[in-house]
Amino acid sequence: MELRLRVNGIAHTLEVEPQARLLDVLREQLGLTGAKEGCGEGECGACTVLMDGLAVNSCLVLAHQARGRSITTVEGLAAAGGLDRLQQAFIDQGAIQCGYCTPGMLMSAKALLLAEPDPTEEQIRLALAGNLCRCTGYVNIIKAIREAAAGEVALKDPAAGVRVGKAAEGERGQELPQGVLLGNEAGMAESAPAAGKVLSGEGEAV
Ligand code: FES
Ligand code: FES
After folding, report:
1. Whose alpha carbon is nearest atom 1 of ligand 2?
2. What is the pTM of this model?
3. Which of 82, 86, 93, 108 could form a disulfide with 148 if both were Cys (CB 3.0 to 4.6 A apart)?
4. Distance 102 CA to ligand 1 centre (A)
5. Which residues line ligand 2 (CB under 6 A)?
6. pLDDT per residue over 19-64, tens digit each?
7. In order of start, what are the domains of the chain with their CATH numbers?
């Protein structure tokens, strides 16, 4: 069956099996291997991507449920020429874990900050509740998300090429080029979606 969707701001028309999972389409047909398969059962969060700004476990979403939707993978987080502030904050705070869990944590954190630019620690912990890693106490990860949130609060209009957050004070040395949209790629809802992860592709495909 034919599937049209946007991934990281790029429109795609693909031929997919009716039962294909979004995770497999992203990894195997589009070569976007940032989203990982850990459990394959919606438990670990390694496969987390954004669908219209909401965090979803792509192992539980059928590809056809993404029809007409805008998907963002970890590959789409970085603004052209630089990292997303969440990525930079993860580096700054030593919050990087392994390549399996970190992409999912970044995407869950991104969904949180889209919905709640200034989250409490409790909200951060809740947002990460579906991202499992037995190798960390999450302390630095929470610090990183709080640091990125501080930048989000100070967000200026990126289309005007304005420096944002701490970068404006020269702490990150990160400057947004003209016309770059932060993380939330062109075509994604600009309004803040409801907080929390959608565990499967809820609602009608559009
Ligand atoms: S692979 Fe574990 S939640 Fe999807
Ligand atoms: S699962 Fe990635 S470091 Fe623990």
Report:
1. 133
2. 0.77
3. 86
4. 13
5. 97-98, 100-101, 133-135
6. 999 999 999 999 999 999 999 999 999 999 999 999 999 999 999 9
7. 2-76 (3.10.20.30), 85-169 (1.10.150.120)
